[in-house]
């Protein structure tokens, strides 16, 4: 049984005859202790506070029966680990894509969860980062209230950032949550604005995911490892 925040993705699962439903990862409508195993892949790094990230792992543990296991993957700050570049860095295209044209922009988090509909180069709304800085990760200080927009297929320079997701194909309907990127004057792209979403990420430093999991007394870590730009743990419910 699968669940996701996106109704469109859940609908695709239904078309393929998979069992899936829409839900919030902080409040999963499944009875406690009813699952033999759970997986959380590329989800927890989207929660913007340490409290919510901990709550998401606690909710995952709640679903497990005693002895049940959970696998968690989150995006790693370290995209180059033990002198090896991750697949994410290796897949950088030779031609600069649109994401790279806006890497100097700074965006601020929206209030009340609403995205700004600004059509200026800098997509802005206010965000204060309260997470404590993790030692040794070399991340940018959380004192800066503005979130940087990441350049795709490059190393991370901040733990808290926005990653641009460009819509492909013809988008006739413009929603409030879409920012418009303004490209350099005279460029081909300047004649036709491309809608882009900015998704929040908190990338995890080495040891951070394990530390969060160890703060829960209902689980123990069976295994932790690095896998292609992700930090991963396997938990057992006590």
From TrEMBL:
<dbReference type="GO" id="GO:0106335">
    <property type="term" value="F:tRNA (5-carboxymethyluridine(34)-5-O)-methyltransferase activity"/>
</dbReference>
<feature type="region of interest" description="Disordered">
    <location>
        <begin position="87"/>
        <end position="122"/>
    </location>
</feature>
<dbReference type="GO" id="GO:0002098">
    <property type="term" value="P:tRNA wobble uridine modification"/>
</dbReference>
<dbReference type="InterPro" id="IPR051422">
    <property type="entry name" value="AlkB_tRNA_MeTrf/Diox"/>
</dbReference>
<dbReference type="GO" id="GO:0008757">
    <property type="term" value="F:S-adenosylmethionine-dependent methyltransferase activity"/>
</dbReference>
<feature type="domain" description="Methyltransferase type 11">
    <location>
        <begin position="1"/>
        <end position="72"/>
    </location>
</feature>
<keyword id="KW-0808">Transferase</keyword>
<dbReference type="GO" id="GO:0030488">
    <property type="term" value="P:tRNA methylation"/>
</dbReference>
<protein>
    <submittedName>
        <fullName>ALKB8 protein</fullName>
    </submittedName>
</protein>
<dbReference type="Pfam" id="PF08241">
    <property type="entry name" value="Methyltransf_11"/>
</dbReference>
<dbReference type="InterPro" id="IPR029063">
    <property type="entry name" value="SAM-dependent_MTases_sf"/>
</dbReference>
<keyword id="KW-0489">Methyltransferase</keyword>
<feature type="compositionally biased region" description="Basic and acidic residues">
    <location>
        <begin position="87"/>
        <end position="101"/>
    </location>
</feature>
<dbReference type="GO" id="GO:0005634">
    <property type="term" value="C:nucleus"/>
</dbReference>
<dbReference type="GO" id="GO:0000049">
    <property type="term" value="F:tRNA binding"/>
</dbReference>
<feature type="compositionally biased region" description="Polar residues">
    <location>
        <begin position="111"/>
        <end position="122"/>
    </location>
</feature>
<dbReference type="GO" id="GO:0005737">
    <property type="term" value="C:cytoplasm"/>
</dbReference>
<dbReference type="InterPro" id="IPR013216">
    <property type="entry name" value="Methyltransf_11"/>
</dbReference>
């Amino acid at each position: 049984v699968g669940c996701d925040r996106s109704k469109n993705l859940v609908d695709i699962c239904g078309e393929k005859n998979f069992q899936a439903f829409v839900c919030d990862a902080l409040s999963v409508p499944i009875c406690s202790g009813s699952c033999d195993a759970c997986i959380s892949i590329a989800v927890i790094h989207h929660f913007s506070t340490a409290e919510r990230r901990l709550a998401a792992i606690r909710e995952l543990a709640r679903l497990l029966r005693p002895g049940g296991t959970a696998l968690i993957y989150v995006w790693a700050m370290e995209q180059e680990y033990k002198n090896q570049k991750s697949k994410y860095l290796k897949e950088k295209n030779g031609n600069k894509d649109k994401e790279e044209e806006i890497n100097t922009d700074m965006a601020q988090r929206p209030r009340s969860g609403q995205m700004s509909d600004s059509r200026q180069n800098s997509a802005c709304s206010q965000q204060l980062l309260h997470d404590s800085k993790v030692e040794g990760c070399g991340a940018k200080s959380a004192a800066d209230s503005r979130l940087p927009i990441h350049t795709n297929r490059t190393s991370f320079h901040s733990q808290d950032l926005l990653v641009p997701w460009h819509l492909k194909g013809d988008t006739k309907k413009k929603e409030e949550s879409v920012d418009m990127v303004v490209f350099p004057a005279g460029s081909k792209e300047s004649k036709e604005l491309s809608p882009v979403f900015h998704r929040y990420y908190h990338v995890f430093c080495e040891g951070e995911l394990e530390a969060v999991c160890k703060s829960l007394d209902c689980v123990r870590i069976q295994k932790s490892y690095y896998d292609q730009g992700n930090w991963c743990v396997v938990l057992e419910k006590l």
